[in-house]
Records
---
Amino acid sequence: MKILNYGSLNIDYVYKVDHILQKGETQASASRQIFAGGKGLNQSVALGRAGAPIWHAGCIGTDGSFLMKLLTEAGVNCDHLRVLADTPSGHTVIQNSLDGDNCILLYGGANRQVTKEQIEDTLQSFSAGDYLVLQNEISGLPFLVEQAHEKGMHIVLNPSPMDDTIRALKPDHIDYLLLNEIEAAQLTATAFEEEDPEPLIKALREHFPKTRIVLTLGSAGSVYFDAKELIRQNAFPVRAVDTTAAGDTFTGYFLAGITEGRSVQQSLEMASKAASITVTRPGAAPSIPTREEIENI
Ligand code: RIB
């Protein structure tokens, strides 16, 4: 069994701010740091540091060689990563507030240059029973889902950022869906109260009757459900410094657990521990813990 992550790779420009900017406001930032990021890259790094057999496919520019280096060091195979001569890597501008929150402005860059030809070429190296991990920061997502489904791959979707591309995917092509409350509300057009995820769970079950779903609830933990069962997991309380990549860490470690044969409850617990470490450190990919760190908690 192999895991292929076809996903984004970004250069994150992270600005430390007192509070997230409001409309029309100008604010001086306390610092700027540059990190490896991208939802795709972060999830691959989590899978690699968890010890999973992970391949990352996508596109970067010549400015993104440190992104490939970081993936390789995390144990991720980059044979299907293309370096484009004429397009810069994707990048983000991230505000990180004093209370650990963030907001992210995304520029797609090379992530939007993934072609059908590259997808067909990459998928030749994978077969039925392998896993395909996807987010929504690259071009070609609908084609990828169709092709991988036809091959009999298990499709794992983190529908972030949410838009009409996600809404147009066929629900029965998605085997695992991992998302947060905001994404769930947007995807199912459902209103919800922060303390009560039940309306979201009901709506997701209706929209995705055959899918295994993990809904993350921030400090309230997470919940797994499918047509038959529902399993809850508490979050591990920590003081958050930077929540960037917490969801990506959770996704990577949950899938690592499931694909190595752990139970859903064990996989949720490992993912939750991993994400709790990530939020105590600055930056995206560099903040993702190793398997050893989690086991030493
Ligand atoms: O999920 C966090 C990631 O979202 C950041 O690393 C940023 O690059 C954006 O893709």
Note: The chain is about 30% helix and 25% strand.
---
Amino acid sequence: MGKSLTHKILAEHLTAGELGGGGEIGIKIDQTLTQDATGTMAYLQFEAIGLPRVRTELSVSYIDHNTLQNGFENADDHAFLQSAAARFGVYFSRAGNGICHQVHLERFGIPGKTLLGSDSHTPTGGGLGMLAIGAGGLDVAVAMGGGSFYLNDPQVVLVRLCGALPPWVSAKDIILEVLRRVSVKGGVGKIFEYGGPGAATLTAPERATITNMGAELGATSSIFPSDEQTRLFLRAQKRERDWRPLAADPDAAYAETLDIDLGALQPLAARPHMPDLVSPAAELAGTPVQQVCIGSCTNSSYRDLMTTAAILKGRSAHPDVSLVVAPGSRQTLTMLALSGALTDLLDAGARVLEPACGPCIGMGQAPASGAVSLRTFNRNFAGRSGTADAGIYLVSPETAAASALSGVITDPRSLGAAPPAVAAPEIFRVDDSMIIPPGDPETPITRGPNIKPLPVAPSLPDALSLPVIAKLGDNITTDDIMPAGAKVLPLRSNVPALAEHAFAPVSPGFAAKAKAAGASAVAAGWNYGQGSSREHAALVPMYLGVRAVIARSFARIHRANLINSGILPLLFAEDADFERLRAGQTLSLTGLGAAVSGDEPFPALIVETGEKIRLRHDLSERQKQLIRAGGLLNATRQ
Ligand code: MIC
Ligand code: SF4
């Protein structure tokens, strides 16, 4: 039986465990990336590990999230990150150079390499045939130190594409179709490998749109083969030397297969407030729109913005629509400028932002109360835009541009028979002057007042009495646990200040209750912790004394972050146990040492009612050790 591309790359990098065995595996990481909202912690952790320089082939630190400088905090963080990059041997992509995933694709991604990034959309690199995975900052810090990255041996799903996209339908509609079929939790534990004859019709940036938003499936990663399209892209980036052909064996075995006929797709939109609530744009047509945002790491390549500009050329955005364009990279923005397309965007009334995450993470451009905002982004969780009652729809650049012109959700096919043709450039404008190479290992680290020491996890006692401060529903996101946005993000390197905002959207007053309790637990439904990789969603609860999260299931990255922070990720043994436990009750856990060492369900007492419920865990031997040691940082130092 032949091998999938995923298994080939995993096999080349395997350091522990067995492929196909279903257990935990360790892999060697070739490249890492961090961004400024997660990077401060990652480099503080790398510093705490105590190595002088990174041991990867390449590590890059990007500044792209916290670019609104309302106070000193973000600039302080950037100065810290720049000095840490120089000292530890990391490339530093300055503020204004673009979004980590877009720039990494353009300038650093290499087919067949492994990439670990402290951002959930790191799988964007899968568009180039890399095995690119998102993780918490601490996992990335360990990988920078040369340590293996551990993951559950993934199930590999083949997404077989046939045919070619019809006019006005683009890559975003493909991944929205996958989300419609698979759902936001359907990808947990899986890697989506794209193939079939339709794959060859997609350029590398189009593929990257798909692998980027594979994160919204909860998937471990997504990957395309490295073929002629990949070669053309790398050649146009003046990096053809980085190309090598890579594909699955023709008789490769897969856990599942998903067939998509590209020719049968139509423009789609994800409705508020989940990326898998997908409808045809035509069915939503006529809904008034107050804001249209084009950009983010999903859809802000040269192809996407040139297409947008061509659709808008010679016309104006509807007077009721605020049209925002955030280019993905300085390369894209300068090429738009040189081609004149930037003028077309400005003439159409676009508010052009610097190349950064911007509105995608609520860094400015919060929509008006109750507004409908169409975005080419990847997440539409309630409140993430900065406006709690805004309704965010996720769409392609084509649908966004058509709707910006009309002021209502518009199926772009209504604009005519064929969209303006945008050819992939023969050569991109390559200028790496805003990427600073690694500096002197003696560089002193700059530490402004916003850089606070790392919180330290406690080790596991044998008995715990834990008030359940909150009982939450299904699909709780890390934006619910640790909100982002322009007001809160500047506190990412200041855990005590950040802690005041924990669980704000779903459990107001959480921080005060947790502090009063000393030690506590949180209960939740399915897919707890989906979304962002931010380890702050574990670090902050740990800082506030949360010792266990008991859920029906967990999202991959967040579960790993909980363990890394020494918080027990427990599961309800049965549905009835979930029903029985209520917020405000106290859970008494005894014999925890034995319970963690064993693999059997164990009892927990609800103090108020005297009822016993049964809990379990699915920790690997390595994870059991981490929990006992009080998390990954303590364990690594030991
Ligand atoms: C996001 O899209 O939610 C972020 C902001 O990029 C996060 C990282 C973070 O919270 O800093 C992610 O996707 O991992
Ligand atoms: Fe930035 Fe948004 Fe992409 Fe996250 S999803 S990396 S915030 S552009």
Note: The first strand starts at residue 14 and ends at 16.
